[in-house]
C-alpha cells in the first residue's frame, strides 16, 4: 500500500485519463472512504421504508453501520449502530419496527432517538447512566430528505442537500411527479447484487452509452430471435401491442440495448456538480410499455391528468430520463422507478442494493411492469445484468495490473456544451463526459484537506482527559 | 404429505434426477422440452414470497423467457458464461405432496455446486415441482426454487437450479 500526498493524488486524474490505481490501490480506497464517503451526502433510502413510528432499517455509510429510524415523534434519525457500553451492534435486523434497541451483550436499552433508557443492574454504578447524553447512541451529524428520499452526511459541515444535488434534483422530481397521488413508495423487494470490482465501475457503467451494444450483445440477440407471441408489433420493439404479459417489458428492454449507434449518439448526456449526471431522451414510454396502446398505461395517464391537468401530465410524461448518478453512492432510473444504492466493501468488492417504487394513485397492474423491469435490469440472474457484473470483474482484474498506467477517457473530450445552469451536455450521446465529470469531483474531494474532529459522527463521549479519567 | 407407492416415488425420483442430469451436462434443449408451453420457472427473491408479479424474483420466467435465457447462454459473447459454469446437482428428500391424477405436486431439496473462473459456489434450496402426466410422460408446469440465501447478496447467477 502506498501513501499519497495531495499532489500525487491530483496527478492521478488528467483531463483525458485516470491512473489505474484509483480502481485498485487499497490505500486510495481507504482515503476515499474518509474523503468522499465521509463528506458527501449519501443516499440511504426512502421515507416509505420507515412509514410508522419506531420503523427502522439498517445500512452502512461507507463502512459505518447505521440505523435509519423514525422516532416515536415521527422524526427521522440516523443513529450509529454501536452500543456505547462496549461496542456491539445494537440492531442486527435488516428492517423492522421497535420501541427500543436492546444490546445483546449486557442489555443496555436505547429508545429510537438513541437515548439510553435502561441499564440492567444499574445500581452498581455510582450514579444513574440513563439519560446521559454521552452514553446515548451517536447520531450521524446531518440528515435530510429530498421529496421523500433520505440522505445523510458523516460531515458536520458542508453544503445543503439541495445545493449538493443541484440540477439532478430534477430526476427526483421526475420520479415523484409521475405519481398521480404525488407520492411514491418502496415496494417489490430488494435485489442485492455483488461483484469483485471497485465501486466506481458501476457508476461509470450506468451512464456509459457505448457498452450496451457490446456487453449485452448476447441478450440483444436472444431477445430479437424470440418470435413475437400472437400479433407481433415490431414497431414498438415488443411482442404484442397492448399486451400485459409479464415478459413483454423484459423482452423490449433486452432488444432496446441493441439500438443502432445513431440512437445512442443522439442521447442527452448531462454532467452536473459534485460528479452527478444523467442520461436523458432515452426511452419513451412507447418503447417499453407501448404507451397508450396499453390500457393500463392509458388508465394511468388519465389518473395523472385528472390530478394535475392534461397539460402538466403531458409535460411530466415527456421527461425521458434513464439513469441518474448521484455521486458517490446512488444510481437511479426515475422514469422506470429503480433506485440503486452502491455500497463499497473493499477496493475490489461492491454490493449494490436496488429498490423499486410504486407510484401512488397509479393502477395496481402498472406495478407489475415495474417488477418485471426490475428483474431484467437489476435481477441477480438477469441475462442483462450478469454480463455487466462480469465486465466489472474483468475490468478490475485488468486494472490491478501494474504494467499499464492509464485508463483512457477521451471520448468526446472538448465537445461539451454548456446547458441549463449547472449542467454541461456531451457533444454526442456517447461522450465519456460523465466519467470525466465523476473524476473531477473525485479529485476535488480527495485533495481537500481533512477536516478535524468535526468530520465524524457526533461523538457523544469525547475522549478528552477529563472524561477518560472520570469513573462511569 | 401423502403416502406414495414405491413405483410412483421411483418414477418421480428418476424424473428429478434426469432433469438435474440434463442441466449438469448442458443438454438445455432436452431440459426445455421437459417444460410445458404454459410453464413457470420461479426462483423467488424473498422468503415465503407469495407471487412473482408484485414482488421481484431472482428468476421468474415463462416459456419465452426460458427460451431466451437458453439462447443467450449459447451466444459466443455471453460474457458471464465464458468460461462455462460447471455444475453438479444433488436432489434429495423427494416427497409426493399431492396426486390429482393429471397433476402431481412434488417437494425435494437441492444442492448445486458450481465452478466457474476459479471460483466454487454452493447453492442450497427447497424445490417444489408441479408436474403433469402427458402422453410423452411427465412434464413440468411449474418449478419453484427457494434458495436458502435468496435474500442475501449474490454475485451474478448464470445458471438455473
Ligand atoms: S456492550 Fe452493549 S450492553 Fe454491554
Ligand atoms: Fe449494461
Task: Tell me what the structure shows.
The complex is a heterodimer of chains A (472) and B (161). With 472 residues, chain A is α+β, with helices and mostly antiparallel strands. Chain A has 2 domains: 42-146, Rieske [2Fe-2S] iron-sulphur domain (Rieske Iron-sulfur Protein, 3-layer Sandwich), CATH 2.102.10.10; 187-447, Naphthalene 1,2-dioxygenase Alpha Subunit, Chain A, domain 1. Chain A is built from 17 helices and 24 strands. In chain A, strand 5 (64-70) and strand 6 (76-80) form a beta hairpin. Chain A is globular. Chain B has a 6-stranded mixed beta sheet. In chain B, strand 5 and strand 6 form a beta hairpin. Chain B is an alpha+beta fold and 161 residues long. Chain B has one domain (6-147): Nuclear Transport Factor 2, Chain: A. The mean pLDDT of chain B is 96. The A-B interface holds A 187-196, 214-215, 217-219, 221-223, 225-226, 229, 239, 245-247, 250-251, 254, 351, 356, 367-368, 371-372, 374-375, 378-381, 383, 385-387, 389-391, 394 and B 43, 45-46, 49, 52-62, 64-65, 67-69, 71-72, 75-80, 151-158, 160. The complex binds FE2/S2 (inorganic) cluster (FES) and fe (ii) ion (FE2). FE2/S2 (inorganic) cluster is lined by residues 83, 85-86, 88, 103, 105-108 of chain A.
User: Domains counted in the coordinates of chain B: how many?
Assistant: 1
**Can you list the strand order of the major beta sheet of chain B?**
2-1-6-5-4-3
Give a short account of the largest sheet of chain A.
9 strands, antiparallel
Find the structural class of chain B using helix and strand composition: alpha+beta
- List the domain count of chain A as a whole number: 2
CATH architecture of chain B: Roll
Which two chains share the most extensive interface?
A: A-B, 48 and 37 residues
Q: Can you identify the CATH class of the largest domain in chain A?
A: Alpha Beta
Outline of chain A: globular
Q: SSE order of chain B, as H and E?
A: HHEEHEEEEE
Total number of strands of chain A = 24
CATH topology name of chain B: Nuclear Transport Factor 2, Chain: A
Query: And the CATH topology of the largest domain in chain A?
Result: Naphthalene 1,2-dioxygenase Alpha Subunit, Chain A, domain 1
Q: What does the oligomeric state look like here?
A: heterodimer
Cα Rg of chain A = 24 Å
Biggest sheet overview of chain B? 6 strands, mixed
Tally the helices of chain A: what do you get? 17
Structural class computed from helices and strand pairing of chain A: alpha+beta
- Mean pLDDT, all residues of chain B: 96
| Rg of chain B | 16 Å
Amino acid at each position: 500500500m502506498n501513501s499519497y500526498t495531495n499532489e500525487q493524488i491530483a496527478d492521478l486524474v488528467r483531463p483525458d485519463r485516470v491512473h489505474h490505481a484509483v480502481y485498485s490501490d487499497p490505500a486510495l480506497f481507504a482515503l476515499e472512504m474518509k474523503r468522499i464517503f465521509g463528506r458527501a451526502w449519501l443516499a440511504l433510502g426512502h421515507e416509505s421504508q420507515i412509514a410508522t413510528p419506531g420503523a427502522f432499517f439498517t445500512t452502512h455509510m461507507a463502512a459505518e453501520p447505521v440505523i435509519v429510524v423514525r422516532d416515536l415523534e415521527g422524526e427521522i434519525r440516523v443513529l450509529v449502530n454501536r452500543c456505547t457500553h462496549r461496542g456491539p451492534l445494537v440492531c442486527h435486523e435488516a428492517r423492522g419496527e421497535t420501541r427500543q434497541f436492546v444490546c445483546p451483550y449486557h442489555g443496555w436499552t436505547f429508545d429510537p432517538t438513541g437515548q439510553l433508557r435502561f441499564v440492567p443492574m444499574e445500581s452498581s454504578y455510582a450514579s444513574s447512566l440513563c439519560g446521559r447524553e454521552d452514553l446515548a447512541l451517536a447520531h450521524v451529524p446531518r440528515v435530510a430528505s429530498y421529496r421523500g428520499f433520505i440522505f445523510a452526511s458523516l460531515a458536520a459541515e458542508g453544503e445543503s442537500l439541495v445545493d449538493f444535488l443541484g440540477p439532478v434534483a430534477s430526476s427526483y422530481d421526475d420520479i415523484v411527479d409521475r405519481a398521480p397521488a404525488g407520492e411514491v413508495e418502496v415496494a417489490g423487494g430488494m435485489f442485492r447484487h455483488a461483484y469483485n470490482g471497485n465501486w466506481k465501475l458501476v457508476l461509470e457503467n450506468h451512464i456509459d452509452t457505448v457498452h450496451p451494444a457490446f456487453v449485452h450483445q448476447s441478450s440483444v440477440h436472444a431477445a430479437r430471435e424470440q418470435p413475437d407471441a400472437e400479433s407481433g408489433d415490431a414497431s414498438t420493439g415488443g411482442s404484442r401491442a397492448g399486451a400485459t404479459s409479464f415478459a413483454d417489458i423484459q423482452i423490449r428492454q433486452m432488444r432496446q440495448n441493441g439500438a443502432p449507434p445513431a440512437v445512442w449518439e443522439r442521447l442527452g448526456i448531462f454532467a452536473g456538480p459534485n460528479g452527478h449526471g444523467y442520461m436523458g431522451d432515452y426511452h419513451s414510454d412507447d418503447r417499453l410499455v407501448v404507451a397508450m396502446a396499453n390500457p393500463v398505461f392509458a388508465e394511468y395517464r388519465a389518473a395523472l391528468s385528472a390530478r394535475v391537468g392534461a397539460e402538466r401530465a403531458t409535460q411530466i410524461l415527456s421527461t425521458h430520463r434513464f439513469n441518474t448518478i448521484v455521486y458517490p453512492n446512488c444510481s437511479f432510473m426515475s422514469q422506470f422507478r429503480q433506485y440503486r444504492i452502491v455500497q463499497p466493501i473493499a477496493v475490489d468488492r461492491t454490493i449494490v442494493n436496488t429498490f423499486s417504487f410504486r407510484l401512488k394513485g397509479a393502477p395496481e397492474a402498472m406495478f407489475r411492469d415495474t417488477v418485471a423491469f426490475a428483474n431484467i435490469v437489476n435481477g441477480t440472474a438477469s441475462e442483462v445484468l450478469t454480463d455487466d457484473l462480469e465486465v466489472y470483474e474483468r475490468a478490475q482484474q485488468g486494472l490491478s495490473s501494474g504494467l499499464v498506467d492509464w485508463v483512457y477517457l477521451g471520448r468526446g473530450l472538448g465537445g461539451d456544451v454548456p446547458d441549463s445552469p449547472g449542467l454541461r451536455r456531451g457533444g454526442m450521446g456517447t461522450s465519456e463526459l460523465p466519467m470525466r465529470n465523476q473524476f473531477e469531483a473525485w479529485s476535488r474531494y480527495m485533495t481537500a484537506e481533512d477536516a478535524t474532529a468535526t468530520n465524524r459522527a457526533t461523538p457523544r463521549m469525547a475522549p478528552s482527559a477529563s472524561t477518560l479519567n472520570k469513573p462511569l | 404429505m401423502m403416502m406414495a407407492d414405491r413405483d410412483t416415488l421411483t418414477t418421480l425420483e428418476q424424473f428429478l434426477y434426469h432433469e438435474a442430469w440434463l442441466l449438469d451436462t448442458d443438454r438445455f434443449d432436452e431440459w426445455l422440452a421437459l417444460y410445458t408451453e404454459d410453464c413457470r420457472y420461479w426462483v423467488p427473491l424473498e422468503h415465503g414470497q407469495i407471487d412473482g408479479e408484485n414482488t421481484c424474483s431472482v428468476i421468474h420466467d415463462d416459456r419465452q423467457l426460458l427460451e431466451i435465457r437458453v439462447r443467450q447462454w449459447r451466444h459466443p459473447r455471453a460474457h458471464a458464461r465464458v468460461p462455462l459454469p460447471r455444475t453438479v446437482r444433488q436432489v434429495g428428500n423427494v416427497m409426493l405432496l399431492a396426486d390429482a391424477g393429471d397433476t402431481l405436486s412434488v417437494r425435494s431439496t437441492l444442492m448445486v455446486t458450481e465452478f466457474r473462473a476459479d471460483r466454487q459456489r454452493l447453492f442450497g434450496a427447497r424445490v417444489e415441482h408441479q408436474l403433469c402426466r402427458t402422453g410423452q410422460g411427465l412434464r413440468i408446469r411449474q418449478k419453484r426454487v427457494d434458495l436458502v440465501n435468496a435474500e442475501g447478496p449474490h454475485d451474478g447467477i448464470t445458471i438455473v437450479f
